[in-house]
Amino acid sequence: MLWCAASEGQHPPLPSAVRVASFMPTQFKVALVQMACSADPADNLARAIERVRQAARGGAQVVCLPELFRSRYFCQQEDVSLFDLAEPVPGPTTEALGQAAREAHIVVIAPVFERRAAGVYHNSAAVIDADGRLAGLYRKMHIPDDPAYYEKFYFAPGDLGFPAFDTRAGRLATLICWDQWYPEAARLVALRGASVIFYPTAIGWHPHEKEQFGMAQRDAWRTIQRGHAIANGVYVAAVNRVGHEPAAEGAGIEFWGSSFWADPFGRIVAEASTDQEEILFGEVNLGRIEEVRRNWPFLRDRRVDAYSGLERRWLDP
User: Fold this and answer.
1) How far apart are CA 91 and CA 243, in angstroms?
2) φ, ψ for residue 248 (rounded to 5)?
3) How far apart are CA 45 and CA 70, in angstroms?
4) N or C: fewer beta carbons within 10 Å in the chain?
5) Could you tell me the sign of the dihedral formed by the alpha carbons of 151, 154, 158, 163, in that order?
6) pLDDT tens profile 132-158
7) 52-89: b (≥16 Cβ within 10 Å) or e
8) For 224, how many CA atoms within 13 A lie in the half-sphere containing its CB?
């Protein structure tokens, strides 16, 4: 890890945001935890903590867990009893992972089914710094409502916007699953200085569709995220679960794994299998971001004076 530091007393005080940025590392290693999720929340949390420790032993400074990792993907059905899975933030998951982060000196991105208040729930991701402190919270902004993905029944849309978080490792952002299809979200966190966008995910095949549409669906999922890396000159990390999870009705979902790490040129430099639990490692290099953006200056050439209308649902002729 390389740190940029100046001797105290040689320069006038800088604004706090600049001081934080000046001491961020120019390189850091990340780990993506691809895991199967059981019906036992305590078991899932214990296994996630062990993966965090393994990631730290592998040299990672940041580790990301999959979306809603503490349970099976319960949004396959609408059942009010499943709201009992939710918890506050801070709460049991962030406290346990905060202790693990502090002990291992690693930043943890921890997806949580957040109970904000009675009747108000979010699909969230807590960013826990390497000292165990809660560095920030992201609430999923785009909420799907598709067969076996009935998330609108459970989750209120996020209301914290699209932030980037300063951590001991560097400035990063996390979006969640359905957010990964929206270029506006990726653009906004990139404009806030994130060097890497993490996408904790729970996505897979409906078994009856896999043969006909499976390859195209997975390819579209990879392609859109690679596009975010290219358009914004950032690293992109997609973190998925694996395994077949049954549903009360229907055939369930076969989660396709395929967690991957893409560089700012959009190249997939590391990818996991479709069906095995793995820890995937990658490295952020701020010099690589600088190099790509100098040669593909998309941010420079944006016509910020000409994009009115993007805030509207549709532009009628």
Assistant:
1) 27
2) -60, -35
3) 6
4) C
5) negative
6) 999 999 999 999 999 999 999 999 999
7) beebbeeebbbbbbbbbbbbbbbbbeeeeeeeebbbeb
8) 17
Q: Which residues contact 50 (CB under 8 A, 6 or more apart)?
A: none
What contacts 43, CB < 8 A, 6 or more positions away?
Answer: none
Segments making up each domain of the chain, as ranges: 26-294
Residue located via tokens 């108000």: 120
How would residue 16 be classed by pLDDT, with cut points 50, 70 and 90? very low
- DSSP H/E element including 286: helix 286-295
Fold of 26-294: Nitrilase/N-carbamoyl-D-aminoacid amidohydrolase (3.60.110)
Q: Is 31 exposed, middle or buried (0-12, 13-18, 19+ CB in 10 A)?
A: buried
Alpha carbon distance 123, 156 (integer Å):
8
State the Cα angle at 223 between 127 and 179, rounded to 5°: 35
Average pLDDT, the chain: 93
CA-wise closest residue to 171 among 195, 137, 188, 189:
195
Tell me which DSSP letter residue 246 carries.
Answer: -
Instruction: Provide the pLDDT for residue 227.
Output: 98
Confidence label for 23 from pLDDT (cuts 50, 70 and 90): low
Across 267-291, average pLDDT: 97
Q: Report, as an integer, the average pLDDT of 277-282.
A: 98
Write the DSSP symbol of residue 126: E
pLDDT of residue 258 exceeding 90, the answer is yes
Closest CA to 246 of 145, 111, 113, 148: 148
* Percentage of residues in the chain having pLDDT higher than 70: 92
* This prediction's pTM: 0.92
